[in-house]
């Protein structure tokens, strides 16, 4: 019988730091297991990542050779697969390497007909569980524990998005109405004060012009009317009676 792999206490997990796209609808990030396999790995060994649905992780069986590794395309039926084959030296303490791994990032896997293991997008939110498996030329040599269930994000269907924003509450509407009314009153006051100032300036200019015209106006001189002479052959009796107008002169 093959020797069972060594059980390592390491538990894979999503990195705790803030990370853009740490968990999406088809992918998730894992912290790289540095220094975990030191003392168990040789230069020719490889580290694999086993991915399984959370309710199928207990039924997962480690492959005995690379030829038995379950591929990505069998995930819907087998409920598990293996991916991210990496040289064990890349996980050593002295190896400079990125701090995280991304599961499900290879979108070209869906179009590939080859049998090679692939890191394709995850088909559903899960949840999933993962573990790292160290494999040599004679089969598995060491393995980590299974992770806690990892649930992906659920994409929102376009049909559920409301094209019109939800109606605002009555309190918000009342406050908005009050602010609008105050703004209108303020604008009216400012415009009224400005208009009164301009109108007063125009009226002041007009009064000055009219006063100047009245002071400069001169009427034509009309001399007083002279007394008209009486017709010849007429006399007045008593004298002085014809001088009082508008009485007619006395008959001759």
UniProtKB/TrEMBL annotation:
Keyword Membrane applies: yes
Protein name: UPK3B protein
Membrane-spanning residues: 171-194
Keyword Transmembrane among UniProt keywords: yes
PANTHER family according to UniProt: UROPLAKIN III (PTHR15446), UROPLAKIN-3B (PTHR15446:SF15)
A GO CC annotation given for this chain: membrane
Keywords: Membrane, Transmembrane, Transmembrane helix
Source organism per UniProt: Vidua macroura (Pin-tailed whydah)
Gene name tied to this protein: Upk3b_1
């Amino acid at each position: 019988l093959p020797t069972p792999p060594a059980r390592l206490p390491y538990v894979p997990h999503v990195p705790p730091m803030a990370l853009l796209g740490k968990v999406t609808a088809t992918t998730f990030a894992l912290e790289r297991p540095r220094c975990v396999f030191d003392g168990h790995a040789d230069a020719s060994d490889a580290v694999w990542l086993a991915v399984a649905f959370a309710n199928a992780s207990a039924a997962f069986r480690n492959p005995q050779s690379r030829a038995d590794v379950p591929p990505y395309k069998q995930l819907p039926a087998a409920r598990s697969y293996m991916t991210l084959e990496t040289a064990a030296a890349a996980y050593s303490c002295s190896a400079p390497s990125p701090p995280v791994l991304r599961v499900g990032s290879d979108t070209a896997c869906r179009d590939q007909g080859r049998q090679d293991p692939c890191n394709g997008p995850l088909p559903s939110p899960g949840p999933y569980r993962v573990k790292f498996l160290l494999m040599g030329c004679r089969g598995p040599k060491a393995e980590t524990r299974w992770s806690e269930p990892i649930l992906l994000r659920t994409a929102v269907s376009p049909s559920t998005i409301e094209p019109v924003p939800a109606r605002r509450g009555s309190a918000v509407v009342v406050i908005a109405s009050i602010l609008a009314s105050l703004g209108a009153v303020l604008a009216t006051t400012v415009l009224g004060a400005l208009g009164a100032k301009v109108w007063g300036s125009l009226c002041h200019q007009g009064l000055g012009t009219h006063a100047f015209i009245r002071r400069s106006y001169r009427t034509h001189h009309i001399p007083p009317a002279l007394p008209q002479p009486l017709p010849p052959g007429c006399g007045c009796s008593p004298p002085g009676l014809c001088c009082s107008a508008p009485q007619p002169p006395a008959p001759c």
